[in-house]
Amino acid sequence: MATTLPRTGPLDVDKMDGDQLKRVVGDLLSKLEVPDQHHFIERMDTEKLRHFVADLLVNIKPPVDASTTIFVDADRLREFVTELLTALNVPPHDAYITADVLVAADLRGVDSHGVARLYQYIKRIREGLIQVKPKIQVVHETPVSLRVDADNGLGQVASHFAMTKVIEKAQESGIGMATVFHSNHYGIAGYYAMMALKYHMIGWCFTNTTPLVMPMFGKKVMTGTNPIAVAVPTKDERPWVLDMATSVVPRGKLEVAARRGVQMPTGWAVDKDGAPTTDPEAALAGGAPMPLGGTRELGGHKGYDLAIFVDILSGVLSGAGYGPHLAGFWGTEKSSDIGHFFMAFRPDLFMPTSEFRDRMDDMIHELKDCPPVRGADRVMVAGQPEDEATEHHKITGVPLDAKTAQSLRTLSEELGVPFPGK
């Protein structure tokens, strides 16, 4: 039976006092069978409780099914994924990086790119389509750039290597850039862009992906969902972190809807004939996500061209596959040959970094202070929902739907690694 959230609406949430909010949150957590509920509630003041309830009422679509969802501690889940990969002879450090990227996606609420992807990674490793011990090499280098051959290893490992090098170059020269070729699916783009934040730099990350999206006015998939990620440091505010597909939604969102057995919103995808559909199974059976914007009248040509721009930097410039030439993540006959692009630069190329971070705080304050429209709780900025989801999931545990949990249990049995969930 699906969890039913109290349909109080944002205005009612605003009128609730602390005790009322605690009762609402307590009722919700009980239905979700979240462990240590009292500890969770007591750690939040009234305003945090108010925002927590409002976010659930406004933003969770579809609601979690409490009858099938389990919650797993993030640290235990990361350790479990690391052990599964090392059981397949992935070096421990590489296994940990890959696990950290996958669990980071689940923590941030991007479950389309989290541990649900692990079964396919392992399938490709077993089929010899991903190298477990690649020889990652820099094949061309300048003071501000490098080109990396991932040697068909796990995309997370090559990407972490490349972004680390990019940051080192930016520390020395103010800016660093890298392309990566002969790589694989690398998880959420935002992870790598956010690596620059520790150094108060602006991080960029692009990747091309399996061809899944039909071009504007086309009837054949020609490009991927090709995400763009940018992470910008602040002073006291949360960093501004954009992590978006250049399609209306990534393919993973269609898979999530199919796993949960729910219909998709109109405008997410088309079927194999190019007709709009709300059935995720129809979209996955020869259909495609729509370019960002959807139809030509709504700006779909802009999403289409953004995807091409990402493919130029990630595929054409790197020497990787591009467009329909990519085997991608789901191909079963050859390696993916996915390409990535990374960049980091110091704000002090233009102004003192401290001044830039102060100005970023000012901008974010002004955006958040914008009055919301009726029916909306508040104005948010890029990365804010994901940061708040991370805070919640570190306390409640990572939610795993039934199909994802079952795929992990299957891997647990096959590889002899104890599953950390029920």
Characterise the protein shown here.
This protein has helices spanning 9-15, 18-31, 37-42, 46-59, 74-86, 92-107, 118-126, 155-173, 189-194, 251-260, 280-284, 300-316, 353-368, 384-396, 402-415; strands at 70-72, 137-142, 145-149, 175-183, 202-207, 228-232, 240-244, 269-270, 276-277, 288-289, 338-345, 398-400. With 422 residues, it is of the alpha+beta class. Among the domains are: 9-67, no CATH class; 138-248 and 290-349, 2-Layer Sandwich (Ribosomal Protein S8, Chain: A, domain 1). Mean pLDDT is 86; it is low at 1-11 and 57-63.
Feature tags:
alpha+beta, 42% helix, 13% strand, Ribosomal Protein S8, Chain: A, domain 1, 422 residues, 12 strands, 7-stranded mixed β-sheet, disordered N terminus
List the helices and strands and how they pair.
Elements: H1 9-15, H2 18-31, H3 37-42, H4 46-59, E1 70-72, H5 74-86, H6 92-107, H7 118-126, E2 137-142, E3 145-149, H8 155-173, E4 175-183, H9 189-194, E5 202-207, E6 228-232, E7 240-244, H10 251-260, E8 269-270, E9 276-277, H11 280-284, E10 288-289, H12 300-316, E11 338-345, H13 353-368, H14 384-396, E12 398-400, H15 402-415
Parallel strand pairs: 3-4
Antiparallel strand pairs: 1-12, 2-3, 4-11, 5-6, 5-11, 6-7, 8-9, 8-10
Helix pairs in contact: 1-4, 2-4, 5-6, 6-8
Structure, briefly:
Helix content is 42%, strand content 13%.
- Structural class, by secondary structure, is alpha+beta
Classified in CATH, the superfamily of the domain at 138-248 and 290-349 is Malate/L-lactate/L-sulpholactate dehydrogenase, NADPH binding domain
Characterize the main sheet: 7 strands, mixed
- Coarse shape: globular
Question: What is the string of helix and strand elements?
Answer: HHHHEHHHEEHEHEEEHEEHEHEHHEH
Low-confidence stretches: 1-11, 57-63
Q: What is the CATH architecture annotation of the domain at 138-248 and 290-349?
A: 2-Layer Sandwich
Q: Briefly note the CATH topology name of the domain at 138-248 and 290-349.
A: Ribosomal Protein S8, Chain: A, domain 1
* Cα distance spanning the termini: 19 Å
CATH class placement of the domain at 138-248 and 290-349:
Alpha Beta
